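Sharing a chain and its predicted structure for anyone who wants a worked example. Both blocks are below, sequence first, tokens second.
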Amino acid sequence: MEKKTKFVTMGEIMLRMTRPDYQRIIQGNKIDGFYGGSESNVAVSLAMMGDDVEYVTRLPNNMLGVSCRNELRRYQVGTNHIIWGGSRVGKYFYEQAASLRGSSIAYDREHSSMMTLHPHMLDWKDILKDADVFHWTGITCGLSEGASDATFDGLDEALRKGMYISCDINYRKNLWKYGQEARDVLLPALKASHIIFGDTGEWKLITGMTPPPFDPKDTSFELDVEAYRKYFERTQEMLPKGRYFIMGIRHVVSASHHLLTGMLYAEGKLYHTGIVDINPVLDPIGVGDAFIAAYLHAHFRWHGEHQKHLNYALTASAMKNTIMGDFNLLTEQEVLDTMEEVLGEFIPR
């Protein structure tokens, strides 16, 4: 039996609260709760697809912290390296977009257990002792100086062990309140990473270069593939250790209608897909997390099949728009079955 790839990721799992039926945050007297957060979304998605994954976080030792852990265990995510301490779970209130009204998010995560993390709390040698891939994100680095330092400690140990290092740039402008600029912190870590994912704005932040325009009216829009190839050639010069650069590209037609595509620059060659029309969008939260999680699964599942890796990732990301909550609760076979339907012309024969 082939050994499973073991992934380790770290971050803050939060409680997301949403009013039902597209109500505004200030309306109503009912609220739906979901657990989520970029790195936990990746962990759950990998576990759903059959991978061995360990999630590292810090939770308060109370019923809400235990509930977070139990939710991860429900989807077979490893929780052996969760540490307990601090006083609260981070929360955010999400207002769903509707027609002309965009979505809105209000965070309540100050002084959460993860924001008050200190590097000495984590034993990275033990955490990574039998792992193959360390996945980190810019969100954790933006939470606090302690969380950022802990991420870099994990990165250093992964480098020492010769592991694969994966990153989601995940820039959140409402974070980064501890006196550091995001690019100054993230760029050195990105230079040590092998697999790097981001959306168009995040790639612009890191590279200082604006990606080619993507302004489709429908799926007939012609991508400027040559412009993307040149873009990633220059990116490769900036990040010479990078082996695989992935860009998720989304155009919002309306609150419930999105167009999605993706690019992969791998081993000096650009791969692209067609454009997927998603209408209606039920829940767009976690679409990027679904993209990178599915890419990681495919990358280590089907070695060297770069077009398939991108097709699989885009399909999983598109399908996430149909699932309520942060987690992308899809199996490998469900993604493969849909991939043929939505991206058939891009599947190698």
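Comments welcome. The CA atoms of residues 36 and 326 lie 5 Å apart.
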